[in-house]
Amino acid sequence: METFKTVSGIAIPFPLANVDTDLIVPSRYLKTIKTTGIGEGALYTLRFKEDGSLIKESIFNQPQYKGCSIMLTGPNFGCGSSREHAVWALKEVGFRVLIGTSYADIFASNCYKNGILTITAAEDIVTCLMKEAERGRNFAVNLEEQTIVIENGATFSFDITAARKGYLLQGLDEISLTLKSVDQIKSYQVARGKQLPWQSFG
Amino acid sequence: MSIESNINNPATTLYDKIWQQHIVNVHSSGGYIVYIDQHFIHDVTSPQAFDMLLQRNLPVFSPASTLAVPDHNTPTTARHLPIKDKLSKQQINALKVNAKANGITHFDLDDVRNGIVHVIGPEQGITQPGMTIVCGDSHTSTHGAFGALAFGIGTSEVAHTLATQTLVLHKSKNMRITVTGTLPDHITAKDIALAIIGKIGTGGGTGYVIEYAGDTIRNLSMEGRMTLCNLSIEAGARAGMIAPDEKTFAYLKGRPMAPKAEYWGAAVEYWSSLKSDEGAIFDKEVNLDASEIMPMVTWGTSPEQVIPVTGRIPSLKKITDPIKKDAAIKAFAYMGLEAGQKISDAPLDRIFIGSCTNSRIEDLRAAAKILKGRKISPSLIQAIVVPGSGLVKQQAEDEGLDKIFTEAGFEWREPGCSMCLGMNPDRVGPQERCASTSNRNFEGRQGPGGRTHLLSPAMAAAAAIAGYMVDVREFGE
Ligand code: SF4
């Protein structure tokens, strides 16, 4: 996985609550056997009407946000379906950092496995950042330092688990790391197999 | 209970126990390597995972602990014909090819055991108490009804499970939802689940594993427990679970993959140890009185936007949280409804009985009981019933339920996810209103512009007859 570097630019304010992964990418864009080519469906329902015409007033159709890599989100963003396609789609259209009060568990896990940083912050901070985003201020997100610096100099720090930080910064491959414990996994199977002889461990 | 608070308390929860029993090692990232007993894979979220293995030149670690079932893309009519949609066909084929190449058992479309993966795992006796079970599908929580730790994962994690038969996890917190008292007539597990989501919200369970407890839960059938655990994810929980008991054991006994006679005693003995200890501490407790639960219906585009069928859609004055208010305004517009309106005022276009939430034999019986000798409203465009598996379909036909449905005016379909997700040919058209026994009322979920109201199978049947949503309790039998 590519490593995460400092991300900066304007941020798109999108405070809607409970944005589900069907909204992030509708199921008809899931009919692929690849992880690319899904960007076309990113936030489709928010960008287009049912007849395929553009929703002009949609924030996602405003030219200044094209290619924007930071999104400020409402609570419980990414709920619903476990589809990693939602993350692939967001990544393909350029998002690398999401900032909000909460993220659905599976979605957050999918994000960091694909090099997208989800920053969880307190409600008052997110509200304040939303306002800054609405003003079109520049954001600089520094993962190493764990800070968000706004153009006007205001600085916010954020928490992230050491594990997620490490993965994002170093682009580690989780599968290879786990396979270092392959002997332990095999002996676990043997031991558990003796305890539960009716279950298959192959 | 968090690991810290547990140090001086030897009493542990069901989740703590299963978690503890599956830890293989500490992972260098700081998480735990947790052993996965059973992995289900389906057509949509697995092809890319097999690619990830290929890129690393890795084999499938434990093919015998993996089962492949196509369900999401499955057409529910004319099964014997080739699939028309090229992309759907490609995904279904990819699953077959990957399963074959890796020695993974695969229930193909012409196999009577095929169906929605969360229906057939239990049906085949594969799902068992104490197991860790994962699938690239959020409703994997269904299997928690058997006292298993079961949860949905993304495709990268599907690849991780295929390659290592483990996942790297951090422990979730413990929540207990206790439901006590007698459920009124016609009130089902679906209504309990919707009432819970209405109470704690779709983010209320985020970061938690929920254990459902109390005499109401004990009195639920296994089918009802599956419906309840299925909807745990709609409350944001990682998983939902119910401690196994005699009902669980009776359900499993004699199923194809259940322990054989020689091991049965030992299995039941182990399974009986799987329950929260007296005095175990939960990070959060929620209590519900079953006697107060009403037939529930969603009015919006999130499962937490839910009211009793007798109620009115909330007025904006009642919603104080500004973010929730915005969501409600957006939902009103999408759903074509107004604040304060009675939910029964909205005429319906389609009825869908099916999905991994409500497509088991008990669900079909409940709907058929209401439909018997009646006809669906001529105002409907369509009413379909989609059994969860080939075996459910067979049993329903043996009981004559298919006749009741078709005589009432329903279409009797082949098993699959069908109209739950708008990916296969079964869809709700733009601005059409559908009463659905599925689990998600998100915008566009059942098709672009489609409007979904979630409810129980009996309520869906009653709605089909009336042409709008009605209180099944007044509807009678
Ligand atoms: S029935 Fe619906 S929710 Fe269940 S697995 Fe299929 S698509 Fe997912």
How would you summarize this macromolecular structure in one to three sentences?
The complex is a heterodimer of chains A (202) and B (477). Chain A has 202 residues and is an alpha/beta fold.
Characterization of this structure:
The complex is a heterodimer of chains A (202) and B (477). Chain A is α/β, with parallel strands linked by helices and 202 residues long. In chain A, 32% of the residues lie in helices and 16% in strands. Chain A has helices spanning 21-24, 44-47, 85-92, 105-113, 123-134, 162-170, 174-178, 182-195; strands at 7-14, 70-73, 97-100, 117-120, 138-142, 147-150, 155-157. In chain A, a hairpin with a 4-residue loop joins strand 5 (138-142) and strand 6. The radius of gyration of chain A is 19 Å and the shape is globular. Chain A starts with 6 loop residues before the first strand and ends in a 7-residue tail after the last helix. Chain B has 477 residues and is an alpha/beta fold. Helices cover 32% and strands 16% of the residues of chain B. Chain B contains 16 helices and 19 strands. Chain B has a five-stranded parallel sheet. In chain B, strand 15 (350-353), helix 12 and strand 16 form a beta-alpha-beta unit. The N and C termini of chain B lie far apart (45 Å). Residues 1-5 of chain B have low confidence and may be disordered. Chains A and B meet through helix 4, helix 6, helix 7 and helix 8 of A and helix 2, helix 3, helix 5, helix 10 and helix 11 of B. Iron/sulfur cluster (SF4) binds at residues 71-72, 116, 118, 137, 139, 355-356, 417, 420-421, 438-439 of chain B.
